[in-house]
Amino acid sequence: MSPLIQALVALACCSACSEPRAASRAALPADTEAAEGSDAAAQSDLDTAADAPSPPVALRVATFNTSLFRGSAGQLARDLAGGNDTQARAVAETLQRVRPDIVLLNEFDWDAEGLAARTFAEDYLAVSQNGAEPLAFGYRYVPSTNTGIHSGIDLNRDGVIDLNPGSPDYGNDALGYGLFPGQYGMVVFSRYPISLGKVRTFQTLRWAELPQNLQPVDWYGAEAVALMRLSSKNHADIPIEVNGRALHLLVSHPTPPSFDGTEDRNGRRNHDEIRFWSDYLTGGDEAAGWLRDDNDLRGGLAPDAPFVILGDLNSDPADGDSRREAIVSLLAHPRLQDPRPESDGGAFAAGADGRANATHRGDPRQDTADFSDGAVGNLRIDYALPSANLTLRGSGVFWPAPGAPSAELAGVSDHHLVWVDVTMGAEE
Ligand SMILES: [Ca+2]
Ligand SMILES: [Ca+2]
Ligand SMILES: [Ca+2]
Question: Which residues contact 248 (CB under 8 A, 6 or more apart)?
């Protein structure tokens, strides 16, 4: 498939792949079927290419919680129109300075047409910001999200049901917290083709299906347990075609372990959303037999498949109030390597902010998020974790200290971009 056709396929599929509720494969619109047919052709090319030696490929892969969310549906796309949104320009400049080949953006509002993502690509990334070199990503994918899809019931058990988007009462009873369908969504941009027909999403997987889950079933009650989904946004396995081989992006944005009561429903859900990935990597019937994607395919990631876990996982392995066992276990998973990316800005901020930071056990150089310091402090919660079979060449957190180049970009979001440099060798 030519790059042009691949680009057209990627763009044609954006809206079809972005429905708020996952559709069954049989129910997908015609243009998606065409896209999948084209992708099948790409796969046969890929199989053929696997026989021929191909050179190692150096990749910079990044994750960034951009805080590009708004209060109502369509507002982000409207704000981005014209290319002059100050916040989006700073996010774009950050990406132009770091120059990832592949990046996941968290907290980027979903819309049905993928309009915000397209506008960001065309009117921000592809335009020089503050003298930085433009970035041209030929491919993008906007996963659908559970945020802001109302459950129809009083999910947070406060006695209030508001079916009108826009209020916290609405958001609190949604399948993932959000004031409207799509708030706090995500988008992947890539210089390499995205194998859209092979993307696996786990948006509709029910929390109750996870063996030994921590769901507070007595607190929720039977009606809520029957419909509660595990993923607060989506968990997606997005294969990127890199010179004939597939690199799997494993993306998610587990719920913050806060904004709840003694039942700790969000802390428990955060734990289980992260545990999902340990089971997905372990694979096999025993660990991953329970995993069923939105197209009813069962099981985890194929053994030896190269991957990078990306996203704001909302859990620090040493500090904060999450149930840390899940992230500690994931970081120790034998299939991945933890580069422990660092920044000077994180070390500086912990000292300057003080208070809760002074009690932290984790190395502040590894912090990725700058939270209020009365209770939480700065945490390591954003991750780019490559598989052990990728060659790690470097990593970092883009958090410049005061006085360093681009220091003015440090405040664009309460999170900081995390990047890893890996080489996909011929052996993967
Ligand atoms: Ca409620
Ligand atoms: Ca802080
Ligand atoms: Ca810290």
Answer: 237, 238, 239, 240, 301, 305, 306, 307, 308
Is residue 159 one of the residues assigned to a domain?
A: no
Rounded to whole angstroms, the Cα distance separating 61 from 310 reads 9
Element (H, E) at 242: strand 236-242
* Cα 181 off chain centre by: 17
- 316 alpha carbon – ligand 2 mean position (Å): 15
Calpha distance 4→344 (Å, rounded): 41
Of 409, 397, 312, nearest to 88 by C-alpha is 409
**Domains contained in the chain, number:** 1
141 falls within a domain = yes
Question: What pLDDT, in 10s, does the model give residues 251-270?
Answer: 999 999 999 999 999 999 99
Contact 350, 342 (CB under 8 A): no
Indicate if the alpha-carbon torsion angle 204, 210, 213, 219 is positive or negative: positive
- 384-410 as b/e: b if 16+ CB within 10 A: bbbbebbeeeebbbbbbeeeeebeebb
pLDDT in tens, 15-71: 333 333 333 322 223 333 333 333 333 344 444 444 556 789 999 999 999 999 999
**Residue 108 falls within a domain, yes or no?**
yes
DSSP 121: I
* 350 CA → ligand 2 middle, Å: 7
In the block, residue with structure tokens 């704001």: 312
CA of 412 to the centre of ligand 2 (A): 14
Q: What is the mean pLDDT of the chain?
A: 90
Q: Which helix (H) or strand (E) holds 419?
A: strand 417-424
The full DSSP string for 313-366 is ----SSSSSS-THHHHHHHT-TTB-------HHHHHHHHHH-GGGGG--S-GGG
CA 270 to centroid of ligand 3, rounded, Å: 19
State the CATH number of the domain containing residue 300. Answer: 3.60.10.10
State the distance from the centre of ligand 3 to the C-alpha of 213, rounded, in angstroms: 28
Q: Does residue 293 lie in a domain region?
A: yes
Q: What is the pTM of this model?
A: 0.89
